[in-house]
Amino acid sequence: MKSLAYANGMFRIASIRCGRGCINKLTSMGIMPGEVVRVINNGSGPVIIEVKGSRIAIGRGVAMRIYGEEI
Amino acid sequence: MKEIKVAIIGNPNVGKTTLFNALTGEKQHVGNWPGVTVEKKEGYGRYNDYRLHYIDLPGVYSLSAYSIDERIARNFILTENPDVVIDIVDATNLERNLYLTLQLLELKANVVIALNFMDEAEKRKMQIDVNKLQEFLGVRVVPVIAREKRGMDELKKAVVETAEHGVIRKIEVGYGRDIEWAILEIEGLLAEERIRCRHCPFAKLCLGSDRERHWVSTRLLEGDDEANKVVDEEIAIKAMELRRKLEEKYGDMAAYFAKKRYELIGKIVHQCIRGGETKETFSDRIDKVMLDKYLGIPIFFVIMWLAFKLTFDVAAPFTTLIEMFFEILGEWVKSGIPNGMLASLIGEGIMGGVGAVLVFVPNIFLLFFILSLLEDTGYMARAAFVMDRVMYKIGLHGKAFIPMLLGFGCNVPAIMATRTMEDERDRLLTILVNPLMSCSARLPVYILFAGVFFAGMEAGVIMSMYLLGILLAVAMALLIRKIFFGGKPSPFIMEMPPYRVPILKNIISTTWMRGKMFIRKAGTIILVGVVIIWFLANFPEGNIENSFLALIGKSIQPLFSPLGWSWRAVVALLAGVVGKEIVVGSLGTLYGGNLSTALAGDFTQVQAFAYMAFVLIYIPCIATIAAIWQETGSKKWALFTIAYEILLAYGVALAIVLIGGLI
User: Fold this and answer.
1) Do A54 and B262 touch (CB under 8 A)?
2) Is B64 helix (H, G, I), strand (E, B) or coil?
């Protein structure tokens, strides 16, 4: 299992371990277990992913808690 | 003529403001939602014999009520019962946008879908089968291009039809038999209860109608804390038991509901959309530079510097003109009115007061203009992105950086600029520490004192004031968060909207509406404040030396004796509440003659430095107090800011004097 904070390329989300509000916000933006996202920018700041056709920036703190695997 | 109440809702960045402007024309009204600082926009339009009353709801991704925006949106739809809800949907991004749509349909709202950005969808070679979409969702779907005002008549027609005849058909997401049964069971329990209305923090919810009961039951199963608050404890416990039981079989209920919704959306999208390219977009390429690890921050600073310079440089001649105008007008009034007292009240008090408000106007309008420009192009989201790391460390959200920076110019527009922040606590915190950013009105005081007491090292001393302000802002941000809010800044999860060419008309209308509100609301408070200070400074004898203000100054002067300041210095501080630049003018009046020599005799170097620090920190000016009051929507926070700043100012000044005494 790899954290999204260290991922590149295509990434399949397996689990998200942040608070309810955080999970809820991610879900409403289409970021949830099972979803395949594309990592667009993973530098020093927040991670930017493409999910369901939009670009979402996720702070590193939250990105650390999103686990899955690169595919 | 029949009035139809139409709420407009949609995800952020889907062209909601553009659509709202296209529908309402010029007849708009902007205010705040009751009790909160979120902007509420209303407007009117017409279609045949109908008067359409539009209410712009905040941009949200869902109706789950975790953020204040979501709560406002969902409570409005639940309790105000708009006749129609226009759900504006980004055609290029249907899959995510429809999540909100499904939640609206579950609320049994009379939805009409405005399918925006049809031109962009075409550019990406997407074919959207509008009829099929309409069939699946059971509501009218109207393709529009809001920025070109295309499809507006069709949209209004669909709104009127929906208001008259309801949606085409009601659809269900279909959560499976077990869950549907559980929902029915809770609904049954709710129906047995007497009809009662409960206040949740932001609205009244009556469990009188089937619609509300069905919705609350669903939300209870999904594990919604707000729903728990509106039902009896017994029912809440029963619902929790049901949820636990279902979770053994289906896993976390919230995740299960979301999954089911996305499954249905996936099915719909699969059937209704053909084609579509997913290659690197133009926006992605710009972002490669804008968000670059090394270039991102320098670019951000260049843009900010330009914005800052534009705000204050372009405004400067207008500000001078306004100042001159009021000076001349004041003189003219004074010489025109025979009664000296009345002449002074109108000429100096009221004209001076109105002038003091109006000098801010060019700055504020320009600032709002530039902010909406940055927002509408999509850069604002990038700015927050770039600064998030630094800001997070000091307990502030990435979006707080711009308001903090603007504070160096003037705290009033800076505090208003926090409106771009979504999380209420993040926003409040940013507002509360903003006055510590040393605004340009404090500069004249620094220049005066640095020139007299620190000749040869003025720049360094003045710089130290700015640094002190920043350090204190950081310290207070950490402290206030720890004491009042706890936790960390809300997690940074933010959409990076594609870059778009801004629409001038939108920017101007946003600027105008926000600016107008400043003039009206802050204007009244400032005027009252200024008149009070004028009264204190001119009664009973007509000069400041023997006035009530001087009396107050002399009587509280002992409080400041540990700091070694004379009563004149204290009185100047009192007068400075109107605007900190007034401190210099008041000192001039109070000491008379050569101010530099007089000051040199009245302060030691250390006392002077402490005085500068005190001016930096103590009570924000009346305009800033008014802005805090208005933006937080409560007197409490304005008073809190005044209190903590006085204490902090005194503490810091005392520390300077004590430490300075040792050296």
Assistant:
1) no
2) coil
Instruction: Identify whether the C-beta of residue B409 lies closer than 8 Å to the C-beta of residue B312.
Output: yes
The two three-digit tokens of residue B104, written as one number: 């609206």
pTM: 0.79
Bridge partner residues of A49 (DSSP):
A39, A56
Residue B99: other Cβ atoms inside 10 A: 23
Whether residues B493 and A21 touch (CB distance < 8 A) is answered with no
Is B495–A34 a contact, with Cβ atoms under 8 angstroms apart?
no
A30/B292 touch (CB, cutoff 8 Å), yes or no: no
Instruction: Please give the Cα distance from A27 to A6 (Å, whole number).
Output: 21
B513: Cβ contacts below 8 Å, ≥ 6 apart: B28, B30, B41
Q: Cα dist. B653→B58, B59, B476, B556, B645 in Å?
A: 44, 45, 16, 16, 12
Is the pLDDT reported for residue B37 higher than 60? no
Q: Does B389 contact A44 at a Cβ distance shorter than 8 Å?
A: yes
Nearest by CB to A55, which of B392, B493, B496?
B496
Contact B646, B495 (CB under 8 A): no
How close, in Å, is residue A6 to chain B by CA atoms? 15
Residue B523 exposure: Cα atoms within 13 Å on the Cβ side: 15
Determine the 3-state secondary structure of A51 from DSSP: strand
Highest-pLDDT range among B213-217, B355-359, B457-461, B605-609: B605-609
Return the number of other C-beta atoms located less than 10 Å from residue B81's C-beta.
13
Name the residue facing B388 among A52, A54, A59 (closest C-beta). A59
Strand order in the sheet with A47-51: A2-3, A66-70, A9-16, A36-41, A47-51, A54-58, B493-495
**DSSP string computed for B105-165:** HHTT--EEEEEE-HHHHHHTTEEE-HHHHHHHHTSEEEE-BGGGTBTHHHHHHHHHHHHHH
Beta strands in B504-604 (DSSP E): none
Average pLDDT of span B378-404:
83
Judge: A30–B99 Cβ closer than 8 Å, yes or no.
Answer: yes
A34 chain-B contacts, CB cut-off 8 A: 259
Chain A touched by B488 (CB under 8 Å)? yes
Q: Please give, rounded to a whole number of angstroms, the shortest distance from the CA of B385 to a CA of chain A.
A: 7
Rounded to a whole number, what is the distance in Å from the CA of A68 to chain B's nearest CA? 17
Q: Is the pLDDT of residue B31 over 70?
A: no
- The size of the A-B interface in CB pairs under 8 A is 118
Residue B42: what are its φ and ψ, rounded to 5°?
Answer: -130, 155
Q: How far is B505 from chain A (nearest CA, A)?
A: 26
B58 DSSP 8-state letter? P
Judge contact between B222 and B258, C-beta under 8 A. no
Residue B374 backbone dihedrals phi, psi, to 5 degrees: -65, -40
pLDDT tens column, B213-261? 888 888 888 888 777 777 778 888 898 999 999 999 888 888 899 999 9
Residues composing chain A:
71
Q: Residue B636 CB: number of other CB atoms within 10 A?
A: 10
CB contact under 8 A, A61 and B392: yes
CA nearest B417: which of B361, B368, B358? B368
pLDDT at B476 > cutoff 60? yes
Query: B138 falls in which pLDDT band (50, 70, 90)?
Result: very high
Mean pLDDT, chain B, whole residue set: 84
Q: How far apart are CA B48 and CA B226, in angstroms?
A: 40
Looking at the complex, report in whole angstroms how far the Cα of residue B537 sits from the nearest Cα belonging to chain A: 52
- Cα–Cα distances in Å, from B291 out to B300, B331, B468, B589? 9, 54, 30, 53
- Is A52's CB within 8 Å of B493's CB? no
**What ipTM was reported for this prediction?**
0.94
